[in-house]
Specification:
20% of the residues lie in helices and 29% in strands. By secondary structure, it is of the alpha+beta class. The longest helix has 13 residues, at 89-101.
Length: 231
């Protein structure tokens, strides 16, 4: 399905073929594609950010799980390994990124989903995991991962035609504004099913992802009809 598709939590879980997605970081989920969940809402637990006019996602690693009687995970370094010595999700993604940077492995492809509101998720598309590092923040060390939107040539090589139109991330605040303005329904028919964030003027024709005035909600049928008419 296209990037910028809007999903329920259940639909997202079905998309990746798992009953419940409990972790935000999922390296090679069930031996298949890696999946990251993100949120840039005001109460989001991690400060993920978008750079390069929407082409790059800087994703923060995740804290150790909170345990009964344990300390505050926000006060200690994000772990690369579990107490038993096995890699955490931070560790798996970190090693994959570093292996790619050193030329020892192919680039890991990662599917990214973003929480817009409770029960409302957006498919942000397919990304390349190109770098990872540790940095100090608030007196502790956290992981940072650099992911770049898969370009048109790369998407074609992955036999994923639905990614061809995905050139820039629509900022989270724009998605939220559009969802509220359009009342969570297709602007043409009022359908609340199979919705997408659609560029009124496509990015390839000079449109922008940065302004809500150029983004609208369309159902799958009207989104397809519109793209069939673009010359």
């Amino acid at each position: 399905m296209p990037a910028n598709e809007i999903l329920t939590y259940r639909e997202m879980c079905d998309r990746v073929g798992i009953q419940t997605l409990q972790r935000g970081m999922n390296f090679q989920l069930r031996g298949k594609r890696s999946v990251l969940l993100m949120s840039r809402r005001r109460n989001a637990p991690y400060p993920d950010r978008i750079e390069d006019s929407g082409r790059t996602l800087i994703y923060e690693g995740h804290d150790a799980p909170r345990t009964m009687g344990g300390g505050d995970p926000k006060q200690v370094d994000q772990p690369e390994r579990n107490p038993q010595g096995s890699l955490t999700q931070n560790g798996w993604f970190y090693q994959a990124a570093r292996a790619y940077r050193s030329g020892g492995a192919a680039c890991e492809l990662v599917q990214v989903y973003e929480k817009i509101f409770d029960g409302v998720w957006a498919d942000n598309g397919l990304f390349r995991l190109v770098d990872a590092w540790r940095e100090e923040r608030d007196g502790r060390h956290v992981f940072k991962f650099r992911l770049e939107v898969l370009d048109i040539e790369g998407a074609a090589q992955e036999s994923a035609p639905h990614d061809l139109e995905h050139a820039r991330l629509i900022p989270s605040d724009v998605k939220a504004e559009v969802w509220r303005r359009d009342n969570g329904q297709c602007v043409r028919c009022g359908s609340k099913d199979n919705l997408h964030f659609d560029h009124i003027i496509p990015y390839s024709k000079g449109g922008t992802s940065l302004l809500a005035s150029n983004i609208q909600l369309l159902c799958a049928r009207h989104n397809l009809e519109k793209h069939d008419r673009i010359e």
